[in-house]
Design brief:
globular
């Protein structure tokens, strides 16, 4: 009979009850692993729904304290702030306005919940009238292109303003070469050496950013960002980008997007000892919401599964618009 030749190992023994599965679970997921992105709009008095991201809103800065208390009550690992300014210009100068939406939101959050970890996105795409992540200059054939080195000064100024407002971490997302070093030198030079840098070290030119561009009002007015964000076909390049940012002084690294790049998350995790985050981006979020609304999937199960998969790939923390819902389900 089969019983006489059956192998001694029966993996199903360790799956037979919730208690057993919990005991031997290899990957854990808790609210403290999750970072909630938030959008603060300088011109709003009340929240405005983002049509492509159900449950996500552009917020007035007056709502910052309330959301800080929400994040604390849910046990989240922190928040990531984006700003939509009153005015935009060619150089993105509103990015370093000390009275802009992000510095004001940071100050309000830290006053309301001093212990909350507040991270700020450092980029100029929300602040430029053309929607690109840097200052534009004419190229060799007269075409406009992003001037890498000229953009570094704007990024450094923005990082200083955010840090002075009380940000614990600044997170450059622009993908300019050398920006981590420029920001580190600027912060240290202003006596802000205690502020950490979370680098969007590995950020791909992805099709999954569409809904974000509505939320942050930052769609490029021409062209695309493939000239500075990474080619989705490249994996080894991710290791080079991560290494360079680590050498320049990054305290933490990030891979963005998360789900189509879990292999990259795993490779960066294996190559670096720095804390590693992964951004579960707007398009990934919107797909889950759309499939759930159509009755195709169980949203709760799908969200916990996908967030667990990102952690399993090697991410120490996940930036996700699902953070509040996931924290409630995990709780």
């Amino acid at each position: 009979m089969l019983a006489t030749v059956f192998p001694n190992e029966r993996p199903r023994r360790l799956r037979q009850s919730p208690a057993m599965r919990s005991l031997v679970r290899e990957t854990t997921l808790s609210p403290s692993d999750l970072i909630l992105p938030l959008f603060f709009h300088e011109l709003l008095d009340t929240p405005r729904a983002v049509s492509t991201m159900p449950g996500v809103f552009q917020l007035p800065t007056s709502a910052a304290a309330e959301h800080a208390r929400l994040a604390r009550s849910m046990g989240l690992g922190g928040v990531l702030l984006f700003g939509l300014p009153r005015t935009k210009d060619a150089s993105g100068s509103s990015a370093y306005d000390p009275n802009g939406p992000v510095p004001r939101a940071v100050a309000a959050m830290k006053e309301a919940v001093p212990e909350l970890l507040v991270i700020t996105d450092v980029c100029v795409d929300e602040y430029t009238e053309h929607g690109h992540c840097g200052i534009l200059t004419p190229g060799p054939r007269g075409e406009l292109q992003v001037d890498n080195d000229a953009t570094l000064e704007v990024l450094a100024k923005a990082a200083i303003v955010h840090a002075r407002a009380g940000a614990d971490v600044v997170a450059p997302s622009d993908m300019m070469d050398g920006r981590v070093g420029a920001i580190r030198r600027a912060l240290d030079g202003e006596g802000l050496s205690g502020v950490a840098i979370l680098s969007y070290a590995v950020k791909y030119a992805s099709s999954f950013y569409g809904p974000f561009r509505e939320a942050a009002d930052c769609a490029p007015k021409f062209g695309d960002r493939a000239g500075y964000q990474m080619d989705p076909a490249n994996g080894r390049e991710a290791l080079r980008e991560a290494r360079l940012d680590e050498e320049e002084g990054a305290d933490m690294l990030m891979v963005k997007p998360a789900l189509p790049y879990l292999d990259v998350v795993a490779r960066v995790r294996a190559a670096s000892t720095l804390p590693l985050g992964a951004y579960n981006v707007s398009g990934e979020y919107a797909m889950i919401k759309a499939a759930s609304a159509a009755g195709m999937i169980d949203e709760r199960r799908a969200v916990i599964e996908l967030l667990t998969s990102i952690r399993r790939a090697g991410a120490d923390f996940v930036l996700t618009y699902h953070a509040v819902d996931a924290a409630r389900w995990l709780g």
